[in-house]
Amino acid sequence: MQHDRRQAAFEGRHRSVNLIGVESPRTRIDTAVWTSWFNLRRRAPDRFVSKWGAGRFAHYLSRAVLSNYELRSTKRLADDQSDLQHSENSVTSQNGEDGIITEIFRRVGDGHRVFVEIGASDGAENCTARLLSQGWSGTWIEGDPERVAVARKRSTGQAVCVVEAFVDRESILSVLEAASTAPEPDLLVIDVDGNDYWIWEAVATQYKPRVVVIEYNAIVGPRLQWVMPYNPKHRWDETAWHGAGLAALERLGRSLGYVLVGCDSQGVNAFFVLHRDAHRFSSASVRSRWVPPRYSLPYGHPVRPFMGFDLLPLPMDSGAGISIRARPPRVTAVNPGQIFYLDVWVTNETDELVGCSGNNPLQLCYWWVGEEGDRVVEEAVRCQQLWRTAPRSSCSLLCRASAPEKPGTYSLVLGLVQEGVRWLEECNVTVGVWSVITH
Q1: How far, in Å, CA of 356 to CA of 17, rounded?
Q2: Distance in angstroms (rounded) separating the CA atoms of residues 280 and 282
């Protein structure tokens, strides 16, 4: 009886977050923690967020979790050469989906080569634009009129039907029917930054694609069965409130006859195939498949910018008043391409407010220098984050760095660039010497 009362109280407190299949005590605890954090991030006043920084909680939580995960992930990828991440390649996609999709259909066969992409944008950068040049045909669905106009102009003479529609679970079937969509398309891509879960569930009532690519919310981790409450009016507001966790999507996919076969290396998309084709892929748990949010540290989809200022070009003498300090990991012997994280502090001793905002954002960057003092790559890697620091104060950042692909001895250099203005070379700092080794 006491357990029932506690469960009822729990469900009452968290009814608004649509938890799918909350079963274990561990899941209930994770749910409570993440739900509280989601609601805090959605409702926190600007003064709170400004004071504590964008995602300070997530910064300290993810610092250890991500570092440990990256070590496990690197070993797992090295042990499993069939993992789809090894096939990543971008031609018209953002996160290597082109290569992964090609590899999936190499294993399962092309079929009729028909696709449907919901949330196709302007056709310049999506998951299926490349397929058109390879003889595929299909449907693009996009709700932004300006993007639809560009997509139609760009796809003139190609075998794609461009549909202008903001879809939800009530309208998606009629939109697909009006576009004469085949009942068994080879590929379905869903990327609407919100009701993705609910749209897939609705589509599956009448259509059976052989492969499904769907965006997942990596913030919620690999265990939590979290789904954004259905809201037909939802538009992504650049917060963490969108989509569904990987565990919830895997559960839905399994109920529809699909198997999760991988995720891209940025923690954006999940890839599913029909159960009959699952034997062509290595088997793994949801936890092993899950990839953390890597494309906008410290977590997830970029959160809504909390700073309301436009950073003007910094004076030429300002660089001397801004310094970078980093605490390197205790272990600096890494594998080629291994990803690791650094705690970084930016101290601002100037009279200017600095940070990442507006037309001239200040970005933290890193690059590798070889033993002869030459850069390994010409272009520095941006560590894009939302941050700012007031005059005579400091700000903590999380730097995600990737080791060079070639074994050797390298120095890691951190620096700052004000985009469109100049490099603040006075701020450059060398953070230890790394040995890139192979086992």
Answers
A1: 31
A2: 7
Would you tell me the crossing angle of helices 246-256 and 196-203 to the nearest 10 degrees?
0
Please say if the pLDDT value at position 304 is more than 90. Answer: no
Helical ranges in 184-306 per DSSP H: 196-203, 246-256, 286-289
Architecture (CATH level 2) of domain 319-436: Sandwich (2.60)
pLDDT class for 238, splitting at 50, 70, 90? low
The position carrying tokens 């789809």 is 84
Element holding 151 (H helix, E strand): helix 145-154
- Residues contacting residue 7 through CB under 8 Å, at least 6 positions apart: none
| Weakest mean pLDDT among 83-87, 216-220, 329-333 | 329-333
For residue 37, the model assigns a pLDDT of 52
Cis peptide before 298 (omega within 30 of 0): yes
Give the pLDDT of residue 49.
41
For residues 202-208, average pLDDT: 96
pLDDT in tens, 102-136: 999 999 998 999 999 999 999 988 999 999 989 99
- CB-based contacts of 4, cutoff 8 Å, min separation 6: none
Q: Among positive and negative, which fits the CA dihedral 130, 133, 137, 139? A: positive
CA-CA distance, 122 to 400, in Å (whole number)? 30
* Res 141: pLDDT: 96
By the 10 Å C-beta count (0-12 exposed, 13-18 middle, 19+ buried), 12 is classed as: exposed
**Both tokens of residue 388?**
């700012």
Q: What mean pLDDT is predicted for residues 364-370?
A: 92
Q: What is the pLDDT of residue 81?
A: 81
pTM of the model: 0.68
Report the phi/psi class of residue 148: left, alpha or beta, with left for phi > 0 and alpha for psi in -120 to 50: alpha
Give the separation between CA 184 and CA 254, rounded to whole angstroms.
18
Tell me the average pLDDT of the chain. 80
All CATH 3.40.50.150 domain ranges in the chain, comma separated:
80-289
**Residue 343, helix vs strand vs coil:** strand
Q: How far apart are CA 416 and CA 362, in angstroms?
A: 7
d(CA 39, CA 431): 37
Domain with CATH 2.60.40.3880 in the chain: 319-436
Angle between helix axes 2-13 and 25-43 (nearest 10 degrees) is 30
Give the CATH H-level superfamily of domain 80-289.
Vaccinia Virus protein VP39 (3.40.50.150)
Residue identified by tokens 């200040």 is: 362
